[in-house]
Amino acid sequence: MLPSKFCESAGFPDRWQERDLQQYLSDRLTQRGFQVQLEAPANGGRADIVTNWQGGAIAEVKKYLDRDTIYQAVGQLNLYGLNNTHKLVVMGFLTPDARAQSSALRTASMVEQNPRVQVVFVNLDEEWLPGSKVQIGFGNFSFWNLRLPQVPNFKDWRWWFNLAKTNPLILVFAIALVFITASQMKRELTACQQTNQVLNCLFSQKP
Q1: For residue range 8-55, what is the model confidence (pLDDT) as tens digits?
Q2: Which positions, given as ranges, span the membrane (predicted)?
């Protein structure tokens, strides 16, 4: 389906924006029973869509997908995908520029060699076309946290506290390491003091 026909069938405004497509895709996922969060905080920015579709997915939406915009979207998704295992999905219309379409399709095939990455040309995939039958999923029947984990802030004491609370064995090892280090330092300090005493005695003796 041509992007113009898609937009007309979906009821997009004449001067539609990327957010209109983003909202449309969000609504389709919701109709299928999946949970969706738009503009979710993520590493380095905000993810367009975070959903429990496919067991957990982050979607970056672009108006038109060509070689450059696919690479751009994959770069953003790789950042958003740090510290989680969500599927990374690029979504948008196949570019209407006939000269760039083959390059876009090749690029999509290439980036999809990473099993975590998926490129969806929504105007070519019947699943997303306006008026197509909605396949009901089971996302609403289980609780699912849509918040993306962030890269930990090691300077925040609360992160260390939570780490120790959830991993007590690590705390035991850390305490043992502190005691061992302190004991070693004490022995070295004692040896150093004894050496200094001997030297003081030697140099303080008069001929």
Answers
A1: 999 999 899 999 999 999 999 999 889 999 999 888 789 999 999 999
A2: 159-180
Cβ–Cβ under 8 Å, residues 109 and 101:
no
Q: What would the pLDDT profile of 106-127 be if each residue is shown by its tens digit? A: 999 999 999 999 999 999 988 8
Q: Domain ranges in the chain?
A: 3-141, 157-204
- Burial class of 62 by CB neighbour count within 10 A (0 to 12, 13 to 18, 19+): buried
In this prediction, residue 199 carries a pLDDT of 55
Torsional class of 21: left (φ above 0), alpha (ψ -120 to 50), beta (otherwise): alpha
**Residue ranges of the alpha helices (H) in 63-167?**
67-80, 98-111, 157-166
